[in-house]
Backbone:
């Protein structure tokens, strides 16, 4: 497998793969179910982040199993989607953001593969958490369709599953956040530890709590995602077509000797 698509809220089926088959991978963190197939001669794995039928809430997702499982399948690159609320008036509902930084406000999530022991203490560099090469392809693909895709944005990851208070949103905005969601951390963190190139297309589904009138609901988030799934799919398909075969970035070497960890499996 070369590329994985991790589908967030509203993106439950890529609908683009041929020779589809369900796959089940065992990992030290538990099993992972995904769909494998082929697009344009490229082997692709599709993993719905919240499980089949959106049954797993953000704080219960087995992020380590997901990323370990993809690595085990030989995945070299991940294109993920996330639904996000916006704190930035310039990033409007229905627009895409190719995020380039995150702020981590999660609380109780296992967020590393490196737990000490024989591997020692590992501190990984996150100066550039998202793969610049995949981000560039997403930018080009979105532009080719004339879609508004903001180049760069700071994703604030909350623990969820509740939405935020307006006071929290004001604080996140002061800290430099543009968007708020509940799933990108530790997904992006673990992908980098696993040496997998990772980028996310964030779809703005709403203005964050307190910025719009009235309460925020999961239903409105899902409805906006549904309206925009087709556009996300177009962009992902275009990226699959244009990604260069060789990886010209440094994501694979974020962890020196990182392969050792996965050899044990
Ligand atoms: N907050 C947190 N997560 C979200 C939001 C939001 O406003 N919209 C979509 N996912």
Residues:
């Amino acid at each position: 497998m070369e590329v994985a698509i991790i589908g967030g809220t509203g993106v439950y089926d890529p609908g683009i793969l041929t020779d589809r088959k369900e796959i089940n991978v065992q990992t030290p963190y538990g099993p992972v179910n995904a769909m494998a197939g082929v697009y344009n001669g490229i082997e692709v794995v599709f993993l719905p982040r919240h499980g089949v039928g959106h049954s797993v809430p953000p704080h219960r997702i087995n992020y380590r199993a997901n990323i370990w499982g993809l690595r085990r399948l030989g995945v070299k690159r991940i294109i993920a989607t996330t639904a996000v609320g916006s704190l930035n008036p310039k990033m409007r509902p229905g627009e895409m953001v190719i995020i380039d930084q995150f702020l981590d406000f999660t609380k109780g999530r296992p967020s590393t593969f490196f737990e000490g022991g024989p591997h020692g203490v590992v501190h990984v560099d996150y100066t550039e958490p998202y793969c610049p090469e995949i981000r560039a392809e997403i930018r080009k693909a979105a532009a080719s369709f004339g879609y508004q895709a903001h180049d760069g944005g700071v994703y604030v990851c909350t623990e969820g599953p509740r939405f935020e208070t307006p006071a929290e949103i004001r604080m996140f905005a002061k800290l430099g956040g543009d968007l708020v969601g509940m799933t990108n951390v530790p997904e992006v963190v673990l992908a980098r530890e696993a040496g997998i190139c990772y980028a996310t297309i964030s779809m703005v589904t709403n203005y964050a709590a307190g910025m719009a009138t009235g309460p925020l609901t999961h239903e409105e988030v899902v409805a906006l995602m549904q309206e925009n799934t087709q556009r996300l799919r177009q962009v992902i398909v275009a990226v699959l077509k244009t990604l260069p075969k060789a990886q010209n970035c440094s994501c694979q070497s974020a962890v020196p000797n990182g392969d050792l960890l996965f050899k044990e499996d």
